[in-house]
Design goal:
- Helix content is about 40%, strand content about 15%.
- It is built from 10 helices and 7 strands.
- Helix 7 packs across helix 10.
- The model has no long low-confidence stretch (mean pLDDT about 95).
Length: about 220
């Protein structure tokens, strides 16, 4: 799990909440690039391709020269990328984006203009439903702690500890609930980017995925 701080294990141990299993949503976090970068940096998605002089030069900017530019998370999110770059003496400078919106905007503009870009990102995210990207096979971790190693988090389903007793059918349904990352990204794109109503998007999914959710209901009835 990620972004839960110290409070999650505390309240879980105190049995104020209950972990009812994983959503089985495929999460990803790491370094990405628009797919055309595989022509600019032959050898991608292996991380060693980034060290080749031609790739470094393509990614170099006046701000970072002679290093290549690596677009990082906003500064207040912390920078594991900069640490990993330093761990592996890679000729790159991590440049923080101003915000999540700025990260997405640069990915979109680079993809439109076919300009070189390597950046830190995560999924599911609606931007990945619009732009075909590759995920870099990361360098080996110098340490297994979170500062030196990027491990995609699991997505757990958490309920109030009294949820099952008060709403047993809903409790069993939530335990069965699973989510597909690619489908979620498409729905996120329609809501977050295209401005469609959440209820309309969800209803369409329900109407077209009876084969997915009907067994959940049948299991609850049983």
């Amino acid at each position: 799990m990620n972004n839960v701080g110290d409070i999650y294990p505390k309240v879980l141990a105190e049995k104020k909440i209950e972990n009812i299993g994983l959503l089985e949503l495929q999460t990803r976090e790491g370094w990405i690039y628009p797919k055309y970068m595989e022509q600019i940096c032959p050898g991608l998605p292996d991380w060693t391709a980034l060290n080749k002089p031609g790739c470094v030069k393509a990614l170099s900017t006046p701000e970072t020269a002679p290093n290549g530019r690596f677009l990082d998370y906003p500064a207040d999110w912390g920078s594991r990328a900069a640490t990993i770059i330093a761990d592996n003496t890679m000729p790159y400078t991590a440049v923080p984006a101003g915000s999540e919106g700025a990260l997405v905007a640069e990915l979109e503009s680079a993809a439109a203009a076919k300009t070189p870009l390597v950046m830190m990102f995560w999924g599911p995210h609606y931007a990945l439903a619009e732009t075909e990207v590759g995920w870099i096979k990361m360098p080996p971790c110098k340490s297994q702690d979170n500062a030196h190693c990027i491990t995609p988090p699991d997505v757990a389903k958490i309920v109030w500890s009294g949820f099952g007793a008060k709403w047993p059918a809903a409790y069993e349904l939530l335990k069965k609930l699973k989510m597909n990352a690619a489908e979620q990204e498409q729905m996120m794109l329609r809501v977050d980017k295209k401005g469609e109503k959440l209820d309309d998007v969800v209803k369409e999914w329900v109407d077209t995925h009876e084969a997915v959710w009907k067994p959940w209901l049948e299991a609850v009835k049983a």
